[in-house]
């Protein structure tokens, strides 16, 4: 039904769906901060697992819907393109935090571990694409490994949060993860959790509309799948991560901001699991295009730079942002130029 709409109405539907997702994500960020305090799970863990997963729902639906329709490149590029875009958003948030480099101020072992986990998860699709073309019941073994690695990583992230084996050096700019209101932290998390679930449903519905609009642009107007996926729907469905990161930084929830991006990116690797299951013509890893591999490499490179920034913890860099933020913006700009001009 959406695919049959004229181009102006198609763009309007996409904008409205994107706006609904963004507005829901703003509210979800505030609720995630409350849930983190009331459950005592911490901003980094809630940001990485709950908020990161919730704001990725729209992207999951886009990739799975695209794979089910047989467009492997669209499904894959939407997933890996979103990882690159969301990492860029963290560099943009660094511009907003004027006091010090964001990666310095948000020192947290759980964020470091999740960044390492993301590098590992992104390497699995690389191995699958370079290996033999195989699929059992239409699913590549790498997808099963990716899912199991994610679950094990989530468990280890919780252990790192609860029983860290090392801790970051505190400085004047380090922001501690503590409840703003001790009395608020003693209240039940049930009501905000239910409201959070409702917002997730709104974001999921918006993702379906965005995915259908992207398919229409590919089928009806002849646009490249990798272009629409990596620079179209991936960016639109990643807008919640941008909004939630900026809102979290303004609220002073720096661990929530960094954890939300890294955790959202780790969750985004599961897009490939869902897409591989939905794609019925064999392994999705061997049905993609070279441009899709390029965006996977871009996301991996940007994650490595971010991880280095979290370890180095540079206080000030050019323009009061960290050097890792400058490098991440440069890498994304280069990838954008190659995609558009290439």
TrEMBL record:
Keyword tags: Membrane, Transmembrane, Transmembrane helix
Location, primary (coarse class): membrane
Domain Sodium/calcium exchanger membrane region: 11-151, 194-336
Regions crossing the membrane: 6-24, 44-64, 76-97, 109-128, 134-153, 193-211, 223-249, 256-273, 293-312, 324-341
Claim: Transmembrane helix is one of the keywords in the record: yes
Membrane keyword on record: yes
Membrane topology label: Multi-pass membrane protein
Compartment list: Membrane
Protein name: Sodium:calcium antiporter
